[in-house]
Design brief:
Elements: E1 3-8, H1 12-25, E2 29-35, H2 38-47, E3 52-56, E4 58-59, E5 62-63, H3 64-71, E6 77-82, H4 88-93, E7 98-101, H5 106-126, E8 141-146, E9 149-154, E10 158-164, E11 167-172, E12 177-180, H6 184-190, E13 196-200, E14 203-206, E15 210-214, E16 220-223, E17 228-230, H7 236-240
Parallel strand pairs: 1-2, 1-3, 3-6, 6-7
Antiparallel strand pairs: 4-5, 8-9, 10-11, 10-14, 11-12, 13-14, 15-16, 16-17
Helix pairs in contact: 2-3
């Protein structure tokens, strides 16, 4: 898979080394531009369709985290390149795909690019396509407690579940909603074998009802009724695993 990238690095020597390594060892990566500071990087990001950004942490007039804050919701992956290992936790919190230490190891650079290719390959397969989950027909049932007993629901009738403190709102494909005095965690465990994915701390979705995936840091899913639900970055891998 081809990857479009830019290099954000204030040191010319470091830019040249990385560019040469990519050309020689990662020929699938196309470097569309170079930036030496946050402002230049913002212009390149906004004017190009990027898959990947190689990002030095420390730059004049700002740093990598300032840049990512200004970008906001992003569709590209980031590989941090720095001489300082104490930024690793911050990079992890910024959902970096990889963290490279200077001087750059060729083996680690290849691993970083391969990892981004893996992520982008999965995303491309999902982007604006009708998704076919592993389980096409869910025949199970689930009971929900009521004051006078319980109600039986077909799991295939459930579009998604939404957390409401210690309650859960269950949205059905007949436009009805059920409020149940159980936590979302309860339903996540109860529906674990029925093609339901926890895509956000507040949402559990029926993957059989997902019709589109839209890219982003975590991205979002669109359900068969048109409802769009954000996917948290930490849950993206779990969602994608249903569509391998």
């Amino acid at each position: 898979m081809k990857l479009n990238t830019i290099i954000v690095e204030d040191e010319e020597t470091s830019r040249e080394i990385l560019k040469n390594y990519l050309k020689k060892y990662c020929p699938n990566v196309s470097v569309l531009g170079e930036a030496t500071n946050v402002d230049e990087a913002l212009i390149l990001i906004r004017n190009n369709d990027l898959d990947l950004v190689f990002l030095d942490v420390e730059m004049p007039y700002g740093n990598a985290f300032d840049l990512l804050d200004k970008v906001g919701n992003r569709t590209f992956e980031t590989v941090f390149v720095t001489a300082y290992d104490h930024y690793a936790i911050d990079a992890l919190n910024a959902h970096a795909s990889y963290y490279l230490m200077k001087p750059i190891s060729i083996d680690e650079l290849i691993k970083a690019v391969d990892y981004v290719v893996e992520i982008k390959t999965k995303e491309s397969a999902l982007q604006d396509e009708v998704l076919v989950p592993k389980t096409n027909n869910v025949n199970g049932k689930i009971t929900i407690p009521q004051l006078d007993g319980f109600e039986v629901l077909e799991t295939s009738d459930i579009l998604y579940c939404k957390a409401d403190d210690n309650y859960t709102e269950i949205y059905l494909n007949n436009n009805k909603k059920k409020l149940v005095s159980k936590t979302l965690k309860y339903f996540e465990e109860a529906l674990t074998s029925s093609s339901f994915a926890r895509v956000h701390k507040s949402y559990l979705v029926n993957v059989n009802e997902v019709t589109k995936y839209r890219k982003g840091k975590g991205g979002s899913v669109v359900l068969s009724n048109g409802k769009e639900i954000m996917v948290s970055a930490s849950k993206k891998a779990d969602l994608l695993s249903y569509f391998k």
